[in-house]
């Protein structure tokens, strides 16, 4: 957490740990108020379970190639613990009325993305952004003659409402169980 300074384990950045980076083409989006999060008892940035509120569900965002992007920027102040602005970016291609209205209303979201680098145990594969404070539109632009007419959307943490971790890791037992959890959350409303 941001109030703890120092280092607690070795850092190995060599050929054995270097990844290729990148995200898979599917993200999972949740209205922050519609999902309950369960955290690991020792690691505050590890999510072990998520559950939909009654009649609520999450939604998939499906892209292509490198369409999705996510990450963070540290926010450093002389008189406050470090915090992190979370970031998620995608382009929307759909143009019918319902799809336009849906994207017009994107605010206060949690976004879970899947990294292309996979670990043997599933840890460090699914990353969640906006978990505590939500992600909000900071950029929403569309020009008919730019990027093939796609709408470019950027969601970030609001100023003064940054997150205490650079990202949250979603891990329910292993990779397959975590993926099944996320798929269930976007398929079945809570009961």
Q: Top keywords for this entry?
A:
mainly beta, 11-stranded mixed sheet, 191 residues
Describe this structure in words.
- The chain is built from two helices and eleven strands, in the order ββββββαβββββα.
- The chain has 191 residues and is mainly β.
- It has one domain (23-185).
- The longest helix is centred in the last third of the chain and has 11 residues, at 175-185.
- The mean pLDDT is 94.
- The radius of gyration is 17 Å and the shape is globular.
- 10% of the residues lie in helices and 40% in strands.
- The chain has helices at 97-104, 175-185; strands at 23-31, 35-39, 46-52, 59-62, 69-77, 80-92, 107-115, 126-129, 135-142, 151-156, 168-170.
- Strands 1, 2, 3, 4, 5, 6, 7, 8, 9, 10 and 11 form an eleven-stranded mixed beta sheet that branches.
List the helices and strands and how they pair.
Elements: E1 23-31, E2 35-39, E3 46-52, E4 59-62, E5 69-77, E6 80-92, H1 97-104, E7 107-115, E8 126-129, E9 135-142, E10 151-156, E11 168-170, H2 175-185
Parallel strand pairs: 3-11
Antiparallel strand pairs: 1-4, 1-7, 2-3, 5-6, 6-10, 7-8, 7-9, 8-11, 9-10
What is the string of helix and strand elements? Answer: EEEEEEHEEEEEH
Number of domains: 1
Overall pLDDT confidence: 94
Strand runs, count: 11
Radius of gyration: 17 Å
Q: Please give the largest β-sheet.
A: 11 strands, mixed
Helix content: under 10%
Cα separation of the termini: 33 Å
Class from secondary-structure proportions: mainly beta
Strand composition percent:
35-45%
The count of helical stretches stands at 2
**Low-confidence parts:** none
Form type:
globular
